[in-house]
Amino acid sequence: MKLYTSHRAPNPRRVRWVLAEKGVQDVEMVELDIMAGEHRTPEYRAKVGVPHVPALELKDGATISESIAICRYLESIYPEPNLFGRDASEQAVIEMWTRRCEFYLANPIMLNVRHSHPALAALEATQLPQVAEYNRLSAEKFMRTLDRRLAEHEFIAVDRFSIADVVAVVGLDFARLIKYRPP
Length: 183
Known about the structure:
Shape: flat
Radius of gyration: 17 Å
């Protein structure tokens, strides 16, 4: 397998984290410089379909994109340690919290950073301060939800580390680019 990644981007980091959790070392890493637009080349777009990282190229040449889809694929071929749930109930709860962490935390943080950090202007047609501010406030609202959840639970979704924790930590850590400090 071959993982198209970018060390600065948060979504590929999720996949690299899952690979590390599972002890998988036989995946070839192909580093793309997204600031130079390497993810927008005709060759990459023909392979992946969209100008996004990460993408996982399988041995048969098929390509999977979107970090959670890749992580779910990895879970299916490397089931331990389990990150997506052992039974229907755990799977549903982990999926719920993963989606919440992605939609209400990681994505707003990413949009805040991309619309406020000068070095990331190349990734946006126009950086809009109001987009940055709206998404900062949105992420902070969900941070309060996470604070309440983590006051009563060691991990976000279930009684052990899961993909929901990966999504939340990677999302929060991405905010360091703007020296963000949660309220």
